[in-house]
Amino acid sequence: MAPAVDREGYWSPTTSTLDWCEENYAVTRYIAEFLVGMGSWCFHMTLKYEMQLLDELPMIYSCCIFVYCMFECFKTKNSVNYHLLFTLVLFSLIVTTVYLKVKEPVFHQVMYGMLVFTLVLRSVYIVTWVYPWLRGLGYTSLGIFLLGFLLWNIDNIFCDSLRNFRKKMPILGVTTQFHAWWHILTGLGSYLHILFSLYTRTLYLRYRPKVKFFFGIWPVIMFEPLRKH
């Protein structure tokens, strides 16, 4: 982790319980860490605890939605699993309440990790026992997400070394902003996992999903209803 304060900026002093390895206010005095994303943008720009919650709590909520979708992908249309829904809402409320009382980022990281691990287990089950031909998409999304997680840990553990390298090699040093790469790679991995979920669900509903690439690069799911004979 980076020191609590590198230099004074518009949002000083820092009140967040986390401060990443990127040099604070290095680009402009109005943005502590020059990253993008709605909740993340507010957090990295200000390094205020309130904005940190805006960044981290939606990670829990969105992951709960992913969990619900993955466990309900083999259900009939318009069905609602109220037991699972209640469990996930209760989990979100408990995590939110505890995190507001106990300002310990490790607690949030463990709770988020539990949800991600649940998604991984469910995905592995699907590509192993249900739709094995989806292994490519499923494992690609997992691999990209885990690469982002690896860079996140490198950024935390070797922060001092990375900062020294950026001072000596400022041009190449831009590529060592591994927390930024974490956002990019986990975002891409999450997007691919959404495609995996959509493919699984539409296939079960007897549609004919196909992965297409816009401009030969960006993957999307295209599907059409099954023809009736």
Q: Please estimate the helix content.
A: 55-70%
The average pLDDT score comes to: 87
Strand content: under 5%
| Shape verdict | globular
Number of strands: 2
Q: Ranges with pLDDT <50 over ≥5 residues?
A: 1-5
Give me the number of helical elements.
Answer: 8
What's the main sheet like? Answer: 2 strands, antiparallel
Write out the strand line-up for the largest beta sheet, numbering strands in chain order. 1-2
Q: Radius of gyration, rounded?
A: 20 Å
Structural class category: mainly alpha
SSE order in H/E notation? HHHHHHHHEE
Give the N-to-C terminal Cα separation: 62 Å
Structure description:
- This protein has 229 residues and is mostly helical.
- It is 62% helix and 4% strand.
- The chain contains eight helices and two strands.
- It has helices spanning 38-46, 49-71, 82-101, 105-130, 135-157, 159-168, 170-173, 178-204; strands at residues 210-214, 218-222.
- The chain has a two-stranded antiparallel ribbon with strand order 1-2.
- β1 and β2 form a beta hairpin.
- α2 packs antiparallel against α3 (82-101), α2 packs parallel to α4 (105-130) and α5 (135-157) runs antiparallel to α8.
- The longest helix has 27 residues, at 178-204.
- The N and C termini lie far apart (62 Å).
- Residues 1-5 have low confidence and may be disordered.
